[in-house]
Amino acid sequence: MSSGIRRRSVLSAAALGGVVGSLGLSRPASAQPSVGTGPSATTLSAEDGYELWLRYRQVEDPGQLKRYRAALGTLVRQGGGPLQRSAVDELARGLTGLLGTRVKQRSHAPSDAALVVGTPTSSSLIRELIPAADLAELGDEGYVIRRVTKRGRIRTVVAAHADRGVLYGAFHLLRLVQTRRPLEHVDLTERPAAPLRVADHWDNIDGSIERGYAGLSFFDWERLPQLDSRYTDYARVLASLGINGAVINNVNTPADYLAEPFLTKLAALAGVLRRYGVALYVTANFAAPIDLGGLDTADPFDAGVRSWWQKKAKEIYGKIEDFGGFLVKANSEGRPGPLDYGRTHADGANLLAGALEPHGGIVMWRSFVHDGDEKWDRQAYQDFTPLDGKFADNAIVQIKNGPIDFQVREPAHPLFGSLPRTNSMIELQVTQEYTGHSTHLCYLVPQWKEVLDFDTRKDGEGSTVARVVTGRVHSYTHFGFAGVMNFGDARNWTGSHLAAANTHGYGRLAWNPELSAEDLADEWTRMTFGNDPHVITTVSALLLGSWHTYEDYTSPLGTGYLTHPPDGSVTGHFDPSPTTTTQFHKSNREGIGYDRTAATGNGYTELYAPAIRDTYESLENCPEELLLFLHHVPYTHRLDNGTTIIQHIYDTHFAGAARVADMRKDWDGLRRRIDHQRFTEVHRQLDQQLTEATKWRDTLVAYWFELSRIRDEQRSWLQAVIAPAATALLGGERNELPVQLVNATGSGLRTTVSLDVPDGWRSEQATGYVTSRGDTTVKMTVVPPPVPALATLHARPKSGSVPVLDSSLRSLAKTVVVPPASRCVHALDAGPGSAPVLKDYTRLSPDSTWHEGADFGWVGNTPDATDTGLFDVVRRDYVRDSAPTVLRLKLPAGRCTAHLLTGDPHTFNRTLIVRVDGEEKARSEQLDGREFTWLRIPLDGGPSGRDVDLEFSAKEDQTWHLSACVVVADDRE
Fold it and tell me: What is the pTM of this model?
């Protein structure tokens, strides 16, 4: 039976378009373009991007400038509080720059034209110029911008019921002038679609940012409560978008933020934000009563726990009277929560909501619950829908846009519309965790539009996600938007000039989700780079095409999650790694895709309304952009255009990477139209993106050809795979490195393969014959120097002029070099007793305790051990602990050196601190996932040998790792 939904239209309606809806929201500033004349190249001074879109450069066109000066040269304000003061300050700053002359501020209207701002309460002029009925329905955040002529005098008016509306109206008026809109007949009425428009920061106490790609946090907890001007600029930027809340710490947070000295620091920061209408929120650790209060439980039904939270809320509001409330991540990815005590998410949320309610605060409770990959897509729905109606009125369930984790393509989350009696808000990710970090241009507004415009059908036709999260489907008391921010301490805030378009787009959509991606791209470009028509057209096109371009070379047809490592490191989720993520894309030799159907899969499709369920369930009707998210199909399955799945993979990956080269060329066409600094920095970013896009293309094309062995109908190539992908080599000895050669041409090839190796290494070429669509493995001889090292090897096959996918990550090996045991005083491979041990090495396990006559062993505390099963025999496992642990070593006479290998093949690795006989000798940096380092520790056995104690420790609340301990006499190095 047909669902009545057109194929491929379920997610795509109005993705790149928008209409003004029933809220009475006006068209954006960019809706009525007026072509301006760009400045000459000689007038373009260097810019570093710090101003973002709040650039107030003088209007170029003389006639337009004259009209603006006449209308806006005098600014009249007759009262108001701090928010209105901020509005006037911004207008004075902005208009002075835009008009090229100082704006006169007055409390009484002049006889000629003037700009009048205020509320009926603060201004008799506003009462005279704007009927009270025009403001009555706008709430505290809405406003009117109107040209009024009264008694022959022309007034441009920014009026609102409350000062907060005046502030937002002031930024809107500046936006109109920045984008060169005519004001002669301006008559705009605006109010936000949702009351909650929040910026979520995943910033940590130590200054790092989880999923942050723009440097370190600009929240300086060492210096606060001392303030920095950047905090004011941050508040201005948020207010310019209508964002009215900021969560300043990571969802994976310790409890420290809820106690001194942080409360005093937070109060100072809140004072800055308050002047721009931004409420401060804090992520709360659910175990805070234990960590801070000394209780032995955090059970929400425990009277002592309830009392603790009530007292804590009172303490916070005593310092921050307009504190917004808490964001909570609970019982997900190891975080504490109410399920630890046999309670529910509603029980946990209501505990905090009850403490906040007397003070007017709210709790935003994340629905992201990830206990394992197998049920990830369904767990939030299964955990939260039975609790519908059980959450407090001041609790809101915060729902990610999709059921997995901010992938480049996934369906709208089935929870939207499924909680009719529970306040709901949407969580979008502005920072590009899975969409290229700050290296790849990937404008996410079109993606967000697809989700917001998705019709859930949960309350009948028209129950779009946008209508759900703006309170127009169900009778919510609290609802809105949360965006995981991409800000850091980089001078340009976002690490990439173009990434700021996502920040702007998020804030504007949170204010009005019916705005179109085209209008927002146009608006941001004008405000950021000026009104040169060629710049506007070029940059807008780059933005609007970038998401699909990124999708084409990374994630075909909804495959998703092809990145590794899945950790909190800066490099996590950036590089392609299809071999370590097969649980998500289910690729094998027969086909590709995750079967989530009710008929033959995991039943995920059943979570949607019947019409959507039937469309998703049907292989024939399923939207093709989600085909591989919902179905497992043979590589020979044909799409609507007749192309097979595998050919589509080949075509889109090559075409996507080629489009990045075109993007760079288009950008280069803006030379001398954009200031040299920003032009050069974006050009450099696009260079890096092209390199990374080629790497993605080659890695994924090579991977799926190797599985399918179906040739590309348009192209031929050779590829090399170093097996395993990472390997351990013995220094000073001949090692055989297996390299698999795969032939994607139509005929057999004799192929020679060589290795790129570091200086001081020796390697020998190898030759093999590979049949068409076949493979063969050759053994490459490589001899590294006999010292501990880490290096990257690159296999390069060659057969005549046949193209080679030599950018493929699968042709790279990140190798660790260890000296043979025969050259070592100690050769210890650390890990659990059951894990494999390197040839001739000795196992260092938690059971290796020191005793009389031993050569090595733990003294006192013994560590834990982990075997990840990933990487080579040395790096796959390690010993670890959060407490200081002593390893005693028996040394021979003379000087020697200990080499300690630390890292993690899966997740990021914290600092390893090494002390010898109580004195610190070495300290590793925090390492990203899959990264390792050797620490070098000089030791001295003295004239007759002695025992030495190496103490391993980490920073507070962190865990140290040790994969190997190698001690070599100095005369053997």
Answer: 0.92
